[in-house]
Each structure stands twice: as structure tokens, then as C-alpha cells.
């Protein structure tokens, strides 16, 4: 599996599109998980970058986190509001890793407070999910063009121009 830092080095085009769109939507993305009955679920989420990793975090005890606890596979898509995403969009897929290290939890809470003012310091985290990536793609449109960049671990990014 590939951490965000490793991914951003091996797939810089997709990482840039994801990071730019993530920031443009105030961190909002759409998370796809698998429900207990096997059907997909799509939920809003505000993933965070922390210590060179991408973290899928949010309100505890929600169905999306129950889904991830049961089946760690996910797809994360930058929120797109236009029919022609001229600014691009990106999709990441992989598996979450539940980090149970209390020191990491404390550092995460401190970083969250410093960055946003939201205070989780001193709270217990039932789960803290780091994203390990197994694939990604981005799409950028031009006047009459469409550039799709695709990445898999161990391979360079591949551009499909249409």
C-alpha cells in the first residue's frame, strides 16, 4: 500500500489536482464505502493531511466509519459541482489503516486545533483511519480536450489525451 507522501512523489500530476480541488472545496470530498449488505454508500467527508499521510476523519459512530471498520476499501472523490470540471477532479482508492497509537492521536488533535481551532485535544479516538492508496486518477478538461491521468503503485502516471 502507498502512503500520501509516497503517492505524491510517484503521481505528482494527480496529487496536485487532488490537493488543489480539496483546498478549493474547503476540504470537502465524497467518500464511497461498502455497506453491510454489499451496496455502495456515498458520504461527504473532510479528509486531512497530517504527518505526510491522508486521513479519513469525521464525526465518530457514523455509518461511513462503521463501513470502514467492517471493510477497509474506499474511493475518495474531490467534490465536483460543474458539469465540465475545468479545474479538474481526482479520485483515489485504497484501504484504510486504523492507527491506534495514542501519541499519534494526540499529535493529530493538536495539529487540528492549531490549523482549524476545532478542539479534540484530550479526547479518546475510537478510530483514526490513514489512507493507503492502491490507485488514482484525475481528469482535467481544456477547450476541446480531456486529459485523464491514471496511476497504480509501482507504475508511472499514464496520460490519456482525448
TrEMBL record:
Domain of life assignment: Bacteria
Oxidoreductase is among the record's keywords: yes
InterPro entries referenced in this protein's UniProt entry, alphabetically: F420H2_bilvrd_red/Heme_oxyg (IPR052019), Pyridox_Oxase_N (IPR011576), Split_barrel_FMN-bd (IPR012349)
GO terms of molecular function: coenzyme F420 binding; oxidoreductase activity, acting on the CH-CH group of donors
Protein's UniProt keywords contain Secreted: no
Occurrences of domain Pyridoxamine 5'-phosphate oxidase N-terminal (ranges): 25-112
Record-level GO cellular component terms: cytosol
Keywords: Oxidoreductase
PANTHER family (alphabetical): HEME OXYGENASE HI_0854-RELATED
Listed name of the protein: Pyridoxamine 5'-phosphate oxidase
Origin species: Prauserella marina
Amino acid at each position: 500500500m502507498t502512503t500520501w507522501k509516497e503517492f505524491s512523489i510517484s503521481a505528482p500530476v494527480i496529487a496536485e489536482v487532488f490537493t488543489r480541488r480539496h483546498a478549493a472545496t474547503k476540504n470537502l470530498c465524497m467518500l464511497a464505502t461498502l455497506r453491510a449488505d454489499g451496496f455502495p454508500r456515498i458520504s461527504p467527508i473532510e479528509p486531512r493531511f497530517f504527518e505526510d499521510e491522508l486521513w479519513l476523519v469525521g464525526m465518530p459512530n457514523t455509518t461511513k466509519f462503521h463501513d470502514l471498520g467492517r471493510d477497509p476499501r474506499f474511493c475518495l472523490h474531490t467534490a465536483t459541482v460543474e458539469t465540465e470540471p475545468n479545474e479538474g477532479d481526482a479520485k483515489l482508492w485504497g484501504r484504510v489503516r486504523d492507527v491506534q497509537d495514542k501519541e499519534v492521536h494526540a499529535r493529530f488533535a493538536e495539529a487540528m486545533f492549531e490549523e482549524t481551532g476545532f478542539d479534540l485535544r484530550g479526547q479518546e479516538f475510537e478510530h483514526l483511519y490513514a489512507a493507503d492508496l492502491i490507485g488514482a486518477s484525475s481528469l482535467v478538461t481544456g477547450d476541446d480536450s480531456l486529459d485523464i491521468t491514471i496511476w497504480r503503485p509501482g507504475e508511472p502516471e499514464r496520460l490519456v489525451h482525448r
